[in-house]
Design brief:
By secondary structure, the protein is mostly helical. The chain is built from 5 helices and no strands.
């Protein structure tokens, strides 16, 4: 459980730092590296990458939305036929980023298992 929580926190921190220096897809690199470095089951790796970026993007999107009183998010939501719902736009944005990070973390977990095979007793 401690590795799972640590993986979520480190993924969020590295994804935040990658957002400063790289394009948006830097979150995938961050999730991949964390998942390859911290040994977990593939399902937990996916969830930790997913939750780390979901929570990060959710907080950042809410913060940005509050800074401009939701003006921009409501206009973008109307372009996507979301009924001027900035909340729905923020949730959809966070889910897209979280899926990218989750699948990158899953790939990192499988790469780790390829390099360091799991003994048969621990495969369950």
């Amino acid at each position: 459980m401690l590795k799972y929580i640590l993986s979520i926190i480190v993924t969020a921190l590295l994804a935040f730092l990658s957002g400063i220096y790289m394009p948006w897809w830097g979150i995938a690199i961050a999730a991949f590296l964390v998942s390859a470095a911290i040994p977990q089951k593939p399902s937990f790796s996916f969830l930790s990458g997913f939750l780390g970026v979901f929570l990060l993007w959710e907080v950042l999107a809410w913060w940005i939305d509050n800074k401009n009183n939701g003006i921009l998010s409501q206009k973008v939501a109307s372009l996507f036929k979301l009924g001027n719902s900035s909340v729905l736009l923020i949730v959809i944005t966070s889910i897209i980023g979280a899926l990218v990070a989750g699948f990158a973390a899953l790939a990192g977990s499988y790469l780790r298992r390829l390099i360091y095979p799991v003994p048969p007793a621990e495969t369950v």
